[in-house]
Amino acid sequence: MLREFGSNVKAYFSSLPYLIGYIGRVFVSSTAFVRRVKAARKVVIMQLLFTFIEALPIIAVLSIALSSAIYIIGYSFLLSIGQGALIYNLLAVIVMRELGPLLVAFVVTARSATAIATELGGMVTSHQIESFISCGIDPIDYLVAPRFIGVTLSVFFLTLYFSFCGILGPAIISQFFNPVASYGYLPNLIKSVKIFTLFISIIKSLVFGMIISITATYYGFNVERASTEVPIAGIQAVSKSFVGIIFADVLIIILSAL
User: Fold this and answer.
1) Residues 6 or more apart from 225 whose CB is under 8 A from it?
2) Rounded to 10 degrees, what is the CA torsion of 32, 38, 40, 44?
3) Residue 49 · residue 153 · CB < 8 Å
4) Please, are residues 97 and 197 in contact by the beta-carbon 8 Å criterion?
5) 33, 2, 57, 15: which is closest to 149 by C-alpha?
6) Which residues does 227 contact at the CB level (< 8 Å), separation at least 6?
7) Closest by alpha carbon to 214, among 29, 12, 37, 3?
8) pTM of the predicted model over 0.90
9) Residue 124 CA: distances (Å) to CA of 14, 23, 73, 103, 116
10) Which tens digits make up the pLDDT trace of 86-115?
């Protein structure tokens, strides 16, 4: 067991320089994406369609259900201790800053990380990547950069959408649950939303989107020859994305608290 653990650690650190170089190459390629041909821009549009547009229904359901539950349970508890006005700060912090980016990242990982990793892995096993290279087309420029931009923008926009639905849901529920408390709901909630809360939410959404896209494309390209490696790449992309997202979330929380 110790030998296997040691070999895994050694393999991880031996591939670390390649991973760092890959991340740098993706960032360089993505910053120059505006000068790419229109064909690559179509990949971004399709990625936005699959990752952003098609995820809107499930994000809306999650946001409205969770924010309404937090409002109903939290307001009842806070009212019992005479602090009912704190429900607006609770919604702003939990829904907009914490739950929004994290749940959106999990949904995008489950839906898109597997798809991207298996798609690229299938292209490797079918020698399409070799065809791109033989034609003078850089796979990073044409395949990775559009997906990196598309997934990152999708997580960002879905986080904003989650926050919007999270604000709208309790506003509607409060009309039936407690009509008296619904008076002045939106003005009080808007007053409770701080610039720092929005800033942290935006930072999290961008970082999570980068982690998902880089992890999915990295493990997709790690497929070698056998087609049986493709589903393994999809599983690794999802699991490693979850670990990266949780680690980044904890790190951002710690840094924001300093």
Assistant:
1) 125
2) 90
3) no
4) yes
5) 33
6) 122, 125
7) 29
8) no
9) 22, 19, 50, 31, 12
10) 878 888 888 888 888 999 999 999 999 999
C-alpha span between 245 and 43 (Å, rounded):
24
Stretch (H or E) spanning 246: helix 229-257
DSSP string computed for 175-232 = HHH-HHHHTTHHHHHHHH--HHHHHHHHHHHHHHHHHHHHHHHHHHHT--S-TTHHHH
Widest distance between CA atoms in the chain: 70
Within 10 A of 145 (CB to CB), how many other CB atoms are there? 27
Q: Quote the radius of gyration of the chain (alpha carbons, Å).
A: 21
Give the pLDDT mean for 178-183: 60
Helices (H) and strands (E) in the chain, counts: 13, 0
The torsion defined by the Cα of 138, 143, 148 and 151, in degrees rounded to 10, comes to 170
Q: For position 155, what pLDDT does the model report?
A: 95
Mean pLDDT, residues 110-123: 90
Structure tokens at 253: 């929380």
Burial of 60 (0-12, 13-18, 19+ CB in 10 A): middle
Q: Which residue matches tokens 């821009």?
A: 41
CB 67 within 8 A of CB 166: yes
